[in-house]
Amino acid sequence: MDNLEIGAQLSKAEVFEKVEDKLTELGFKVAAKDVDRPWGGFFVLDETQILKFKTAFFAEVELSEEQLKQKLSPKFLLVAPGARLSWQYHFRRAELWKLIAGKSAISRSHSDEQGPVEEMTSGVVVSLDKGERHRLIGADNWGVVAEIWMHSDPGSPSDEDDIVRLQDDYSRK
């Protein structure tokens, strides 16, 4: 998605349309999308395309044949300028993130106290441990972040209910 041009002046609808058009152009099938998150939203790709997704966006990450058979929830998070996801962690998954377009920042910590905000570098994988507190933060432009979930118990894979929110700008639990 190197040539995906998104700017802070674009509306949420325009950004989602551009990203979805790019995914279609690249041959990805969108399994679900959520444009109603207060911080932006996300696209979930068809799980059968995990190898294509991994090759395109996480080529430097080693995944075993066994891991590739698990539900890895290939996803793109779209965070709006100045918006923040909740300060959160997960009991049943680690996560891999990579900024692939625009700008965003991250805060992370192994305690409930929020860590420093650090700008994400385009193309660099961020590995979040299971239980590590984290927050994706919008910068002065939309950020598009590729994500893979690494389930700690493949027999009971993580889902959206596996979010422990320690702080949330939108009063979600």
Explain how this protein is built.
This protein has 173 residues and is of the alpha+beta class. The chain is built from three helices and nine strands, in the order αββααβββββββ. The protein has helices at 12-25, 50-57, 65-69; strands at 30-37, 40-45, 75-79, 87-89, 93-109, 117-119, 125-128, 133-151, 164-167. Strands 1, 2, 3, 5, 6, 7 and 8 form a seven-stranded antiparallel β-sheet that branches. The chain is globular. 33% of the residues are buried. The mean pLDDT is 92. It comes from Algoriphagus jejuensis. Residues 74-168 form the Mannose-6-phosphate isomerase type II C-terminal domain. Pfam families: MannoseP_isomer.
Q: Residue share in helices?
A: 10-25%
The number of strands is 9
Largest sheet: 7 strands, antiparallel
The number of distinct helices, counting runs of at least 4 residues, comes to 3
The oligomerization state is: single chain
Q: What is the percentage of strand-forming residues?
A: 35-45%
Helix-strand pattern: HEEHHEEEEEEE
Radius of gyration: 15 Å
The span between the termini is 33 Å
Structural category is alpha+beta
- Runs in which pLDDT lies below 50 for 5 or more consecutive residues are none
- Tell the overall outline: globular
Secondary-structure map with pairings?
Blueprint: H1 12-25, E1 30-37, E2 40-45, H2 50-57, H3 65-69, E3 75-79, E4 87-89, E5 93-109, E6 117-119, E7 125-128, E8 133-151, E9 164-167
Antiparallel strand pairs: 1-2, 2-3, 3-8, 4-9, 5-6, 5-7, 5-8
